[in-house]
């Protein structure tokens, strides 16, 4: 999970969502109260779940470690195959706009000739 969260694409997307969430909460008082209630609910459920799941995780720790290592190797390979994962969302959007613009310009040139 940490390795996925540390991918540039994922972390920049999370930052964008977090900024939008904070901005929305700031701008709309009614939404603020709903969001605050939802946050408290999530925190309560997380605490309750953590205490219940911890004994199971302790028992399954060797299996979780093996699965984690396997997943980590898979993510490394995925990162090699998809360099896009190492780019921030802003850059991906900019590159996509540039590519589309270039293709549209090429299409216009073909059509006009």
Automatic annotation (TrEMBL):
It comes from the Eukaryota. It holds the Pfam family Perilipin. Keywords: Lipid droplet. One of its GO terms (biological process) is lipid storage. It is found in: Lipid droplet. One of its GO terms (cellular component) is cytosol. Belongs to the perilipin family. This is PLIN3 protein. It comes from Ciconia maguari. The lineage of its organism: Eukaryota, Metazoa, Chordata, Craniata, Vertebrata.
